[in-house]
User: Fold this.
Amino acid sequence: MKLRNILTYILLLISPVIAISQPCFLEKKTPWADSVFQTMTIEEKIGQLFMVAAWSNKDSKHIREIDTLVSRYHIGGLIFFQGGPLRQAKQTNHYQSKSKIPLLIAMDAEWGLGMRLDSTIGYPRQLTLGAIQDETLIYDFGREMARQLERMGVHVSFSPVVDINNNPKNPVISNRSFGEDLHLVTSRSLGYMHGLQDGGIMAVAKHFPGHGDTDTDSHKDLPVINHTVARLDSLELAPYRSLISQGLSSVMVAHLYVPSLDNTPNVASTLSPKIINDLLKRDLGFEGLVYTDALNMQGITKYWKPGDVDIKALVAGNDVLLFSTDVPLAIRAISDALKSGVIKEDEINTSCLKILRAKEWAGLDSYQPIVLAFLHQDLNNGKAQTLRRRMIEQSITVVKNECEILPVASTQGKRIAVVPVGGNAQSAFVKTLDAYADFDVILMDKNPGLNPGIALHDTLSKYDIVIAAFLGTSNKPSKNFGVSNEATRILNSVGSSANLIVAVFANPYSLAAMKEIGNIDGLLVSYQDDELTQTVVAEVIMGACPAGGCLPVTACNDYACFSGITLANQIRMRWVHPEYVGLQGFTDRIEHDVATITGYAAGDYENYREDMMDDERIKETGELVAYDFFAIDSIAESGISRGAYPGCRVLAAKDGLIFYDKSFGTLDWIRNQKVNESTVYDLASITKIVSSTLAVMKLYEEEKVNINGKLGDYLDIPEGNPYRDVVISEMLSHTAGFPAWIPFYTKTLSDGKPKESIYRTSAQPGYSTKVSDGLFILDTYRDTILTTILNTPISSERKYKYSDLGYYFIQRIVEKQTGMGLDSFMSETFYKPMGLSSMGYNPLNFIPSERIAPTEKDLAFRNQTIKGYVHDQGAAMMGGVAGHAGIFSNARDLAIVMQMLLDSGTYAGQTFLKPSTINTFNHTYYPNNRRGLGFDKPALSLNSGSTSNEASWSSFGHTGFTGTMCWADPETGIVFVFLSNRVNPDAENKKIQELNIRTDIQSALYRAFGFKTRRQK
Assistant:
């Protein structure tokens, strides 16, 4: 048992003798409340006791009805239900303007505003929160809910639910409870309560005296709780005792019939003086506000008429009458009861003054209307969304993991099927899995018939791994939570021949049905079904997200309360909000400032930052980080508007978490097709590090290449040729004295056209090397290229000069040492095992043409717009496979390679390179040369080289002629990728360099984190 749970347990034992803290709103003097109370008539005091239901999605008739209740009957508060945030805010302002005394506004939003309002965040339900082991997240949730509620002009939250759900058939509490364990429910309830009240929102614990152990819905009938007083005292009442002792402000009483507490026929706990006045107030010492549950529920209306029920509720000890069915009738009935002595005026005064004191605590003594501007953005800011993701991530519970099948590390060579039971191929679960590897999607109905079931079994039995997900489930026990026997039987039969992983997006009680699937290897429960939860579960399965939740209830004998297997390591990258990695305030400001910020061009970055410093909100909140970060969008967009490239994609990650991943513009200047996450670009010289350098690193580990060896040690180079003595490390660091490049293609042209002796327009014997569409080169010409290089003089000065030529030799060395083509070696050794479906040479062999960004309109050599073929002419003459150019990729796959290098050579649970190897190659060896072995590195002076001034000395990466860049930084954990086709349609377009776009974006990224320049360090 964790320390916090132990402390909670001790508190439960000693709480009967602990001094009880006053409710938060009674702790201080309330001069405003006292003053207002002295001016009120008895009619106004009675009105304050009513909290009426309001909807922002109803018509003007409803608004007029509320207006009447506010102005004529002086009601004290409103509880808002379904609608929209802006509509509700406007109505709140309207109703407040009509009320003589400001209204106390409440919401029943147990799992967030999304429970009631559109376009707001719906957080996980309390049962999901019960699975979270980090209790600070529960407090953080309560605090965030307080922020959102306050922004909406709300003062009271009808949460937390402190019912202990120990009845799997409970139709009304179930996933609204934190779980079945007393200590778990108490500790989570305390965290939720403190978060709300520390944030200025009154918490309401419900449903007193305990609604967990019933199979009747009090909305439809009066549930009976047949437990002894001793049992109730030791279990159901214990959480209330703890919350009251720590300053709980309010309690909601349930409509329950509890004979051991009050056996008066048909008297619900809501109407029982024995349960409220005696038990709650006297015995438990509660002094805060007591709310009835909704007085329109059939658990109470079935036995009592309007008016009568309101009188009985007040006599029982309630302070606030919630959702009275007829307020005017109830007020008249209460007035008559006062006259007859059934209700005492002191009781009305006591409740009224408590309500006024609550209003003063909530700030209504200095009421201000809700500010409508940016309401949607403030409610849905990045911090709020990040919290939701963290809560979901930490709730995911793995209850079975045979042979450590989870996470799925290697997918290479395995046939894997994804089966969304009751879902479709477009579900977030399927799409997220597809982002990590290639799967076959096999659909299954929730209730497949006999013949379809047989067909499904036959199909799925052919796979090595089957990943099934129960989607579109139900919260109702009567529907077995949406899990059918037919589907479980089919999966059980499949599990006898394939490794079976099952993800259950449903109430954990549904795990009882999983007993029918004895052949499950991996079983996860995620408690509910929504897009983000589906995404997170898919990430857990693929190892992109850890999992550490525990079951908060006992589903069956096999899956008991607190069951859970921890998957601690993240072995793949995943996508998160910027706030997740510490960039607070970024998402909040996008909508606020988009018009202003996008007016700045890349070259105006410094002016842009200085202007932002003058922003008053920046001075108040310190959100300059957000402006720095949002400059990325501005700079990327300016590159398009100023003609540097038709489109681009920018990706940034920190510590394996992709927090920025955006597309800008189109694939070409025709503007027909937008860049997206799957767009593949020609990486140009980035090939040098993601192909040749990786290959040499691997061979270096295997002692097949010595970086201090010479070319003559590996290739047949004639005696006396100076190339024989070129050292491998010199060549990799561009210190071998080679020319920058050789335009090999010019010697193959005659009058600007390909020579017939060298080229053919179709593949023929001896001419099978494809250069581009309709152009095939002599197969032996690759040897001619090497001969040409060997006959090219080498400079006697071994100083730094960037050159492509050494990488032609690297390709030959790799192919000779491995017996494989460079393309095949890289694919089999790195790309396929890492799941890089878009990375490789000659992408038209495995990627649809429409996903590939075109490069130059080549009028000098190939006489066509190049798309899907390498832009570099020399690499093209090598059949698209060369050591210096030829690799294509999307941004994600390139980021994964860089992340693997940052993670000491591991990815997806596999080791590709040794840490010592990476350190050896990420190291400078020659004076006045910033280059490592293959890798580019920061320049020795600021404002020069390929990377920003803020990148650390240990960082490494490369740029590409086509307008690409990738960079990784071991000190900061940052991976940066920029992909564009700036050479479209003309390679002479050098605006990307002139505008310094790539390094300006990288600089904005670093400055957003507050990283300093290398000189400042």
